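Quick start: what a row looks like.
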Amino acid sequence: MDETMEHATDSDAGAMAFFDHVRELRRRLIVSVLCLGAGFVVAYLLHDRYVHWLLNPIGEQVYITSIEEGFMMKLRVSAYVGLILSFPVHVYNVVAFVTPALTGRERSFLQAMLAGSLVLLLIGGYLAYFQILPLSFEFLKNPTFVPEGAGTLLGYQKNLLFALRLLFAFIILFQLPLVMILLMAMNLVDRRQMLKCSRYIIVLIFMLSALLTPPDPVSQIGLALPLIILFYLSILVARVFGFGEPDR
């Protein structure tokens, strides 16, 4: 009788813990959605300012070619920029949801990962806008690519999406080293095997760069080379802390 009651009590406690996790997950999702919405509103209100900033590296006038283009692009670009603005909140919510189940050392590690995510986001954004984007525009505007006698009319939509896609690719892919470190810290990935397969990983990096950046070699190489450096740095960090050794 006592064992049955104890078993029922344990089951009830487990069910309560499960529903507590569900409620916490729902709360985190609501916070993320609200922050995404707030980011969209801020991006919509400041649209003219940052669009001018994004198009500035082109150095030429761009033109709207259809009546609905301006309105649709304002909504679309505001959604992209709202996601970028709210990205740190989404990362924080993931960390905050996982943290209560971890030890003090693991919490400190995840908090360091969160700080690293923000730093990599800023580095990726800076590199994309101030270094790669101007070089990419200059390369693609080279007169040798335009037939003699043909004029150029730069479209607003395509060039703005060009800049945004490049910026977004850098911000997202610059988070991959942290994912690698996390997987090695959980001993889900063998560090030595990663090093042995580095030539294939480098090829994969170039393929991802080609898929997620505009079709010019400047932006593709400009994204791939920093990612390769970050890949080897993540291996070094894992070695220093003893991550990625599942056989031990």
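That is the whole record. The mean pLDDT is 85. The chain is about 80% helix and 0% strand.
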